[in-house]
Amino acid sequence: MIRILLLFVLIGAAVWLAVWFADNPGRVEIEALGYGIYTEQVGILVLAVVILIVIAAALYRFWRSLRRAPGRIVEHRGASRRQRGYQALTQGMVAVAAGDSREALRFARKADSLLNDPPLTMLLSAQAAQLDGDEDAARRYFEAMLSEPEMAFLGVRGLLMQAVRGDDKTEALRLASEAQRLRPNTPWVLKHLLELQVSAKQWEAADQTLRDAIRIGVVDAELGRHRRAALAVEASRHALAQGDRAVAAKRSRQAHDFDPGLIPATVAYAKSLTDVGKMRRATKTLEAAWQKSPHPDLANAYRRLGGENEAPLALVKRFQRLVDLREDHPESHLALAEASLAAQLWGEARRHLELAAGEGRTSRVLRLFADLEEQESGDLKAARQLLDEAAKAPPEQSWYCDSCGSVAPAWHACCEACGGFATLEWRLPPGVPVAVEPLPAAIADQSQEWAEEKERPA
C-alpha cells in the first residue's frame, strides 16, 4: 500500500514539473570549445540530462557485471559443488541408517571429494567404515577428529563406543572421563562414566559423578540418595580394608543418612560405632532398623554386639528384645530360635521355630528344625528327613538382582553376575508373589501367653 502511494506521489510530482516547465519555458544557451547549445525550452534540456544519466548508469552497471562475471561463475560453480557435496553427505547418512555399507562408503568418498571441509565428512567416513566392519579405519577417522575442536567430542564418543564394544574397560573409563571434561552435563556421558567407575570400584569418583547426574536431573533425587548410600557402603568397606577406620566410619554414617532403609548401610554404621566403643548407640541403631524391617543381616550384627565371649544365655536374653520389638514378624522368632539352639534351650528353640513357621515351614525353618532334632535327641534320621523336605521347600527371600534375576549370597553395590549397579533387593524371586507376612494373630497371642507364663513365679 505504501509503495502504491509513493508511486502516485512521484507521478504527481513529475506531472507538476512538466506543467511548471510548460508554463515557464525560459531560454538556455551553452557555449564551450567552439560548440553551443541553444534551446527555448528548459524542460527539454532537463529531459536530455536525465536521459544521459540513465544511459551512463546502465553502462556502469553493464561494466560492473562484466568485471564481476568471472568471480560469479567461480562462486556459482563452488555453490553447486557444495550443494552436491551436502546432498552426498545426506545420502550417506541415510545409507548408514539403512545399514547399507557399500552405499555409505560410496557417498562418503563423493562427499569428501566435493566438500573441502574434512570435519564434515570424517564422521560419515567413520560410520561407513564401522558399518563395513573396518574398525581400524573407523578408529583412524575418530582419532583424526580429536585434532578438530568442533569434532573432538564426536571423536571421543566414537572411540569410547569402540572401547565398550571391545570390553576394554580401562580405555573406556579414560575416554568417558575425557568426554565428561568436554561436555560436563551430557546425560549419556555421565551414565557411562558412572557405570565404568563403579565397575572399576572407584567409589569416590563414582559418587562425584552421581552427584553431577542428580544435579542436572539425569537421576531422580530419591533414587540418587539410595545409590549414593550404596556407594558410601562400598567406600566404607574399602577404607576399612585399608585400615582407615576414620574414613570408614564417616562413609558408613553417610550411607545410613542417605538411606536408613538400606540394610547394609545400617550394618556398616553399627559396626563403625562398635569399633569406637559406642555400644549403646550401635544397639539403638540396629533396634530401630529391626523395628522397621527385620532382616538376618541385622540379627547377625546384633549378635556381634556382645563380642565373641558372650555367654549363650546372655545372647538369648538380648535377642528377646528383638522379639519384643517385632513379635509379629517371623524373623524375630527365627533369630531367637537360633540363639536358643546355641544355648541348648531346646524347648524355647522349638516354640519360636513353630511361631516362625506360622502356617507353612520354609527351607530355613526346616533346616533349623533338623539342627534341633540332631542336637536335642541325636535323631539323625529325623534330621535327614527334615533336610530333604527343606531342599524341596519354596525359595525364601534373598538378595535378588532386579536386572538379571540372579541371587547373591551377600549384598554388594554391583551384581556379580551382570554388573548392574544398585540392583540387589531383598525379596522373593520372580514368580513367588507372597512376601514374608506378619505372624497370624492366633500364633502371636500364643507367643504372648508363653511369655506371660514364663514370667509367673513358680
Describe the 3D structure.
- The chain is mainly alpha-helical and 458 residues long.
- Among the domains are: 310-394 and 440-458; 398-435, no CATH class.
- It has 20 helices and 5 strands.
- The strands form 2 sheets. The protein has a 3-stranded antiparallel sheet, with no helix packed on it. It has a two-stranded antiparallel ribbon with strand order 1-2.
- Helix 8 runs antiparallel to helix 9 and helix 10 (221-241) packs antiparallel against helix 11.
- It is elongated, with a radius of gyration of 43 Å.
How much of the sequence lies in strands comes to under 5%
Order of strands, main sheet, comes to 4-3-5
SSE order, one letter for each helix or strand: HEEHHHHHHHHHHHHHHHHHHEEEH
How many helices? The count is 20
From the spread of the alpha carbons, the general shape counts as: elongated
From the alpha-carbon coordinates, what is the Rg to the nearest angstrom? 43 Å
Helix coverage percent = over 70%
Terminus-to-terminus distance: 115 Å
Please state the average pLDDT score. Answer: 82
Structural descriptors:
458 residues; mainly alpha; three-stranded antiparallel sheet; 20 helices; 5 strands; elongated; disordered C terminus
How would you briefly describe this protein structure?
The chain is mainly alpha-helical and 458 residues long. It contains 20 helices and 5 strands. The strands form 2 sheets. A 3-stranded antiparallel beta sheet has the order 4-3-5, with no helix packed on it.
